[in-house]
Amino acid sequence: MANTAPKPGVGVGVGVGSSTVGVGVSNAGIVGVTSGVGVTSSVGVGVTGTAVRMSTVAGDTYIEYNKFVNSGAVTVYQAAGRDGNVYIRYNLFQNMLSPIHHAGGTPGTCQLIVNYNSFIDTEGMVLWLEQDFETASINGIENYWGTTDTDIIDQKIYDKNDDIRVKNYINYLPILTEPHSDTPQADQG
What we know:
Layout: E1 17-18, E2 21-23, E3 28-33, E4 38-40, E5 43-45, E6 50-55, E7 61-64, E8 67-69, E9 74-78, E10 86-89, E11 92-94, E12 100-105, E13 111-115, E14 118-120, E15 127-129, E16 137-139, H1 150-154, E17 157-158
């Protein structure tokens, strides 16, 4: 009988559903989400790689009302002939260890709609489009960035402004001047 236990550093699937918690997971939290799944009201703390990794999106998928603290964010890869959008809304991303990343893929239609989120205590990239993929796109309007200085926000976005091999721009204007009332708040400590 084969050993099916997770290998160290490979990742463990946690946090799919409502009101679940993932703590101290290495590499990836929720892996292989394909479609029609909602990740809601969850808390990801200390996920050192990607907190949610999606591939072969087919149908609309929702990541809403979550807290990602000291964690990686979301990566989406689109497979051929699959259509569906990924809605990343009303989430708190605090001290992100990796960005929200549209990794492109083969032809299909998949847009990341990233709205009404709070990005706080972030030092690196927050939104990232992969190079060489015509279909990779992110709608990043109406998020709270902890600043209204667009020069600072521009430094947190990787798109065609940064690299001519990236095929699209990320629109992030207008921005929110305070966290959206439906987005989870950071714990005071």
